[in-house]
Amino acid sequence: MLTSVDPDVIRVLGDPLRLRIVALLARETLCMTHLVEETGAKQTNLSNHMKVLREAGLVETEPCGRFVYYKLRPEVLAGLSEQFAGLAASARTAVANKRACP
């Protein structure tokens, strides 16, 4: 059980389209038009996914004229990475730990 990792963020990243959006935003800051072009998804569907990503704290917006650009918050991903690295380190040492059955 991943108790030290934020379950909401894991749930958010569990959706294939949202994970694709995160991968795209890791390369560059994009507006909704770019996201529609890159993913082939409908704008309304993407808007809903972007709302979920913003509420989870993974993405922030940047207004630019009549467009809104989306960009990742790298510190959130870095924190998530550190939490998983901690779990991996713990798992390496746990291999030697085996609880006896009653």
Biggest β-sheet description: 3 strands, antiparallel
The protein's oligomeric status is: single chain
| First and last CA, distance | 22 Å
For the largest sheet, list the strands in their spatial order. 1-3-2
Percent of residues in beta strands = 5-15%
Please tally the β strands and state the result: 3
C-alpha Rg (nearest Å): 18 Å
Helix count, DSSP H or I runs of 4 or more residues: 5
H-E order: HHEHHEEH
Q: Mean of residue pLDDT?
A: 90
- Helicity range of the residues? 55-70%
Shape: elongated
Poorly predicted parts: none
Structural class: alpha+beta
Give a short summary of the structure.
The chain has 102 residues and is α+β, with helices and mostly antiparallel strands.
Architecture overview:
The chain has 102 residues and is an alpha+beta fold. Helices cover 60% and strands 14% of the residues. The protein is built from 5 helices and 3 strands. It has a 3-stranded antiparallel beta sheet. A hairpin with a 2-residue loop joins strand 2 (59-64) and strand 3. The longest helix has 21 residues, at 74-94. The radius of gyration is 18 Å and the shape is elongated.
